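Sequence in, structure out.
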Amino acid sequence: MPSNHQDVYQDIHAKLRSYSEVYKFFTNLEQRGDVKRYCNGSNIAGRWFFQIFNREFVEELAQVINRALGRRRKNPPVLEAMSGDGRLTEFLQPLIKRRCIATDSKDGRYNIGYPKWVEKLDAMEAISKYSPAFIIICWEPYLSTTGIDIVKLGTPTAWIGNPRMCGHTDIFEHPYIPLQSKYALSRHDYFLAKEFKSDIFFFNCKPEWI
C-alpha cells in the first residue's frame, strides 16, 4: 500500500472492494498500530467501522437473502435495522431482488454521519412499519436485547458481529446457523495473526438457504 497519509486514511468503504484488497489495507494499518483509530472515525470519510465489508462477504450474505426471499408473489422489503450509516444496505441493494431499507434510531451514541436516506426509526418501529421479508442486524449495540426481540418474531434474520462484543449472548439460546464466513472482518480482529472474531449468524432460516 502507498505510505502517504491520505492513502493510509482513505475510506475503505467508498466502494465495494475485494477481500484481498481490504485485508491488505488493514494489515498495513495494524503494522502502524492504527486500526482502532481508523475505525473510530479517523479516516477521510469520518466513518465509524465495526464490521469491515468486502465484496466476497457481501455476496455471501446476498446469496442467502435471495434464497430466503424465493419467488413469493408479495414483495415486502429487506430491512437493515440499527444500520448506522447504511453502507451495508448500499452494498447489498444491487445484489438483492427486493427493495432494501436502512433504519437507525440515530441516538447519538456514536459520532456517525447518517445519510438522509437512512430513516430515523428504532428497530421495532421499523419492523412494524415495513413488515420486512428479511431483517439484517449488523453490530447491534453491546448488551442490547433488541436482537432477541426481533428473532422471536420469526422473520428470517441475519445477525452480524462478534458475539462477545455486540448484542446480548442470550440471542444464541435461539436456534441459529453460523455462516462461518472466511471473509468476515471486524475492528477487533488481529490481521497479522489471522485471528478473526465475527461472522454472520442466521436465525429463522432453513439450512438449505445457507
